[in-house]
Amino acid sequence: MSIFIDIEKTIGTFSLNVQFEAGDETLALLGASGCGKSMTLKCIAGIETPDKGRIVVDDVTLFDSEKKINLPPQERHVGLMFQNYALFPNMTLLQNIRTGARREKDKEKREASVQEVLSSFGLADLADHYPHQLSGGQQQRVALARILVSDPRILLLDEPFSALDSHLRFRLEQEVRSVIRSFGKTVLLVSHNRDEVYRMADNIAIMGIGKIETFGEKKAVFASPGTKAGAMLTGCKNISAIEWLDKRRIYATDWGVELSIKETTQNIRYVGIRMHDVHPNGMENSIRCKVVEVIENPFSMTIMLRPVGAEHTVPIGWETAKKVWKKHKADELSIGLPVDSVMLLEADPNVE
Question: pTM of the entire structure?
Answer without folding.
Answer: 0.89
